[in-house]
Amino acid sequence: PFDVLIVGGGPAGASAAIYAARKGIRTGIVAERFGGQVLDTLGIENLIGTKYTEGPKLAQSLEEHVKNYDVDIIKGQRAKNLTKKELIEVELENGAVLKSKAVILSTGARWRKVNVPGEEEFKNKGVAYCPHCDGPLFKGKRVAVIGGGNSGIEAAIDLAGVAEHVTVLEFLTELKADAVLQEHLYSLPNVTVYKNVQTKEITGSGKVNGITFSDRETGEEKHLELEGVFVQIGLAANTDWLGDTVNRNRLGEIIVDNRNNTNVSGIFAAGDCIDSPYKQIIISMGSGANAALSAFDYLIRN
Ligand code: FAD
């Protein structure tokens, strides 16, 4: 069996693997796609100490760094079940069962998509999901934010500080964001809010040049010319496969303490799949390191 088995090979999992392996303990990592969300990212400008890199390049260097240590890497495999017996057992979709004394869950998250024409085509070409990451690319430009919940309105306020103009598109008749955020939003001069509207299409040629939406009451369609669209309709943790083996919050995020312990001893969690407020590469890396050090501490005490 492994001493530590890490499930998920994004920034959190890679960091956990390196920190565990450096303790000289038997470490394994299983990942469906090594690199995780980083593989889908173009430019990265906020990984401190690296002025600029690109997702695929960072994913490759994460893997090279892990391979520098004695870590069993199992790629292209999905975990489908977790059980705690004498050891913790992780069952893969191919039927294999991996056993370990401690497990670190780092299966990340995914942005919910609006699923309209143009979204996929112009991803990273004007369609963005992370205002902290891509906001500065739209300095002086016009953008839309799809989604009027807390994350959408926070994004709109954030973007209003850099972009020339921000349009918020909300599907429901009211914004769902906290009142204080709405007040702040409505105090800004360069923001327009449309409620009860449905996004129909993100238009462009090579890159985004506009958005089409319809009024849900009258059916009337409107087209706006703009350069960027931020989709802010929620982030979903990749934790469905866990069922109720570990405690999760209503968003599906795994609940951990400040040592990344879940409610089950020997099972830790790190990165975007936990109940932490901000989801970023550097935060996930720190979280993975914290979880691995906690797992090591657990192993020497048990
Ligand atoms: P993930 O990166 O989501 O990795 C999860 C890992 O778990 C993957 O290996 C996946 O294959 C695996 N996995 C999932 N389920 C299973 C399963 N059942 N069995 C086995 N393996 C499984 N952050 C920044 O800091 N800067 C940026 O510029 C930036 N830009 C972004 C742009 C885009 C388009 C996106 C989508 C995200 C961006 N982010 C950015 C956010 C950043 O990518 C994430 O915060 C970070 O990747 C989270 O790392 P993680 O390891 O927790 O999870």
From TrEMBL:
GO CC annotation terms, alphabetical: cytosol; protein-containing complex
Gene Ontology BP term (one): response to reactive oxygen species
Task: List all disulphide bridges recorded for this chain.
Answer: C130-C133
The organism sits in which domain of life?
Bacteria
Key words, A-Z? Disulfide bond, FAD, Flavoprotein, NAD, NADP, Oxidoreductase, Redox-active center
Tell whether Cytoplasm is among the UniProt keywords.
no
Q: Cofactors per UniProt?
A: FAD
- The UniProt annotation places NAD(+) binding at 142-156
Q: Cofactor note from UniProt? A: Binds 1 FAD per subunit.
Q: Where do the FAD/NAD(P)-binding domain residues begin and end?
A: 2-283
GO MF annotation list: flavin adenine dinucleotide binding; NAD binding; NADH-dependent peroxiredoxin activity; oxidoreductase activity, acting on a sulfur group of donors, NAD(P) as acceptor
Say yes or no: keyword Cell inner membrane present.
Answer: no
Which residues of the sequence carry a binding annotation for FAD?
A: 3-18, 262-272
Q: How does it assemble?
A: Homodimer.
Please give the family membership noted in the entry.
Belongs to the class-II pyridine nucleotide-disulfide oxidoreductase family.
Q: What is this protein called?
A: Alkyl hydroperoxide reductase subunit F
Q: Which organism is it from?
A: Anaerocolumna xylanovorans DSM 12503
Task: List the top taxonomic levels of the source.
Answer: Bacteria, Bacillati, Bacillota, Clostridia, Lachnospirales
Shown residues within the full chain:
207 to 508 of 508
